[in-house]
Amino acid sequence: MPAHKYAPYRPIGLDTRTWPTRRLTEAPLWCSVDLRDGNQALIDPMDVRRKRQMFDLLVAIGFKEIEVGYPAASQDEYDFVRHLIETDAIPEDVVIQVLVPIRADAIERSVAAVRGSRRAIVQYLNPTSVAQRRVVFRASREDTLKLALEGARQAVHFQETTPETELFLSYVPESYTQTEPDFALEICNAVQEYCAPRTDRTLRIALPATVEAFPPHEFADRIEYMSRELAYRDRTILTVHPHNDRGTAVAASELALLAGADRVEGCLFGNGERTGNVCVPTLAMNLFSQGVDPMLDLRDLDGIRRVVESCNQLPVHPRHPWVGEFVYTSFAGTHQDAIAKGLGARAEAGPDSVWDVPYLPVDPSDIGRDYQALIRINTQSGKGGIAHLLRTTQGLDLPRRLKIDFAHVMQEFCERRGGEVGADELWRMFQERYVAPGREPWEEEGAPAPASVSHGASGGRAETINHVFAALAVPTSTVRDLTVQRLEGRAGHAAFCEAVAGSRTLWGVGVHHEESQAVREAALAAARRVREATTGRDDREHAGTDAPRPADADRRAPGVPA
Description:
This protein is α/β, with parallel strands linked by helices. About 40% of the residues lie in helices and about 15% in strands.
């Protein structure tokens, strides 16, 4: 790798930094740039219908500032801004923002686009980085500063001559991260000194990481430097606009907020040029997971994702923080067992207790996920995860030895077939092995059942077991234990009959709304399995496959003795 081609960044050297000792206790002011920065990065930019769908979503989530376009760039951009205003689509508490380069005609057209709205932000910019001054504009520092002041003059003029709309002005030294810190401060302060005496409205400075050029701690140092030295800081909303070129936009944003930033511009799920803008939901959920109100409504995060995927025509990665399909799912047995036990402990502590479940930084139900998706079964899964699924989907709380027995069965099945097993398939396989492991002749349609099973077992549990085992000519001495429980969260009972045949432990399970019938069905299932084991009948473990089992499968998956 030709590393010699690349120069390391030069630290600002802020030895008196204070941000590392601070904590975030409130959300920043959010501004979505999905309709401008995000839209310009799409393979197929949004049409009016998709833009309006995105705008309505942003309003519903709770964004109070939304960048709606670049009206000087094209007629389509201009027309969409007018559409929002003329259809009265902008709520009273929402401020729209437009981006504009510092050119007299572009600023005039942008102001014309927002005219008639209650409030709007005109965000004007000029590139200030060393490389752009040198190779793009061939401009000196003085030329660049002069252009920024000309933009401020034009913006203030339109602010003063557009009384029907409350205009806020925001200056952007584009490519701030690649601009010398002292020059960035000089140019921002010059703009501040020009604007402040001419308006009593809030001043705004936006510092973009147009390209993420150094680690997040260095970004924080530079934001704290600007926040300390910026003129009229008490009147200024200081914004950051991080990009994700180094993969640390979220970290850079969090540290920038600690360093003094007031406002964050970003996109839903990190859309944007190259590696994208900072992901606002990730940053907001990070705050939420620390007990800070994010001031955005993310209670249906999956629904938000579906709309964004439709509008952007881009998928959200299944491992994307907080919203990906798999981010609340565990396949590993140790994780599954810990989650199941953590959820059980929380149920005992009550819904108002502090969330403290292993491997789950937030309660998935808070953002619209159900608990069934937390645990999925494959070759890495263990008894805890399997038992959790059966408890949450069927109300069954398996005895420990049965958990171990079924876990071995499922692991062997997954190893043979590959892939994962869903909750429905898991239940079917459990039924085939333990609930209905085989049919007797009298169970065929129209055949009467023996009196000893259908009528003679109406007494106690022991009598039921005796009659059922006798009907199948299986000695009752093989029965080790019988457990009966009410199904969790629903009407009915489950009975678990544990029997032994030589060195094997065999289980039968009955599920019925009547306790006596559940016991009868469990005894019948256990008796069948004992008879099969003792008579040498083929037992393929009823694991959902017709393939013969390996010869030593029973030795590899024995039951646990009492």
